[in-house]
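>> Question from a student workshop board

For tomorrow's exercise we were told to take the sequence and the ligand below, predict the bound structure, and bring the output to class. My setup keeps failing. Could a helper post the expected result so I can at least see what it should look like? The ligand is copper (II) ion.
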Amino acid sequence: MLVCGSCTGQDRTLEITAQEFRFIPSFLEVTEGQRIRFVLRNQGHEPHTFHAPLLLTSAHRVQGLSEDLSVQDGEAIVIHPGETVRFILEPRAGVYAFRCWIKGHAGMEGVMIVKARES
Ligand SMILES: [Cu+2]
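>> Workshop helper replied:
Here is what the output should look like for this input. Compare the format with yours to find the bug.
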């Protein structure tokens, strides 16, 4: 069996760090059909949110959200200082913007591109 993080049909882990006031990285590119294991870390001193309404829907099969995870309106995941949040998505092709929607946190934004699988 091949083990390749960038191949289609494989699990892939994406780590995103939130801090004052940016996401690192702010640009992500994956391929449709991959199961993406998101690891969101808040290394800042304030709470941050991962607000991605087009991404955090059942259409993309969100899995693995722990029970103590707070999701606001099904669109944003709240990450408290020092916290790490993990979840799994299998996103469809598209362009998905994400940002922190806390007032005053302008600039905390990014984009995830999910490329269509070549057949
Ligand atoms: Cu923030």
